[in-house]
Design goal:
232 residues, Arc Repressor Mutant, subunit A, Four Helix Bundle (Hemerythrin (Met), subunit A), 2 domains, two-stranded antiparallel ribbon, 2% strand
């Protein structure tokens, strides 16, 4: 029987509170129970609870009001990128069109950082893309490689803000990519994309890379919609 380490009290309390917010136990605009009662309910010490509440405030789940009860935020309006990591563990809490919207954000960003990457760090991206030919024909292999490509592009773009934004999507990206790349059509399409992008890099043409990435990101949204309509 596989063994796993027990959750630390702070991690347990944080996950429990986030799930309670997502499940509507504590809807946005309401307040949490007092510190003493909440610590008792969660089975943690008050210092541990304060640590957890501080992290949740930092991520935008809560607003700590000194002298008043802690307010539950509307995380869609006030949350930060770390909210996405929590949502990756609770896909049932996502709106039906959320992944499409996530892909639209990637469409807005990826062409720009691809263009900068070819201009500033083409050799590193080309070295990464050289591994595409040897990819195993599995969803897991393509999901990992595709994430690595976008990460490599953001790093090569010489703008660390792109990388920080992308990292905020890491958990959700993994969940989505495993479903997307479970379809052979998506793997074939991506293999073509990798070779076209490598060609643009070899020609030292940032604008060509930008156009290729923009076109493929649009195509991926269409494919995703088709897969969802097919019940994938």
């Amino acid at each position: 029987m596989p063994w796993s380490a027990p959750q630390r009290p702070a991690a347990y309390a944080e996950e429990t509170l986030v799930n309670a917010i997502l499940d509507g136990v504590y809807p946005s605009g309401t307040t949490l129970p007092g510190e003493r009662d909440l610590a008792a309910q969660l089975g943690v010490t008050r210092p541990t609870l304060r640590e957890v509440l501080g992290r949740l405030e930092r991520d935008g789940w809560l607003t700590i009001q000194h002298g008043k009860s802690t307010r539950v935020n509307d995380f869609w309006l006030e949350g930060g990128l770390n909210v996405l990591d929590a949502l990756a563990r609770r896909p049932d809490a996502l709106p039906g069109d959320f992944i499409r919207r996530l892909l639209e954000v990637r469409l807005a960003l990826a062409p720009a950082y691809a263009c900068d990457a070819v201009r500033c760090g083409a050799a590193d991206v080309a070295a990464y893309l050289a591994g595409a030919a040897g990819l195993a024909d599995t969803a897991d292999a393509y999901a990992g490689f595709d994430w690595g490509l976008h990460h490599a592009l953001t790093v090569a773009s010489d703008n660390p803000v792109y990388t920080l934004i992308l990292n905020g999507f890491a958990g959700l990206y993994r969940q989505m990519a495993l479903v997307y790349f479970s379809q052979a059509e998506a793997r074939v399409s991506s293999q073509t994309f990798y070779q076209e992008l490598l060609g643009a890099i070899q020609q030292q043409c940032p604008t060509a890379a930008q156009r290729i990435v923009e076109r493929v990101m649009k195509e991926s949204i269409v494919l995703w919609q088709e897969f969802r309509e097919q019940g994938v």
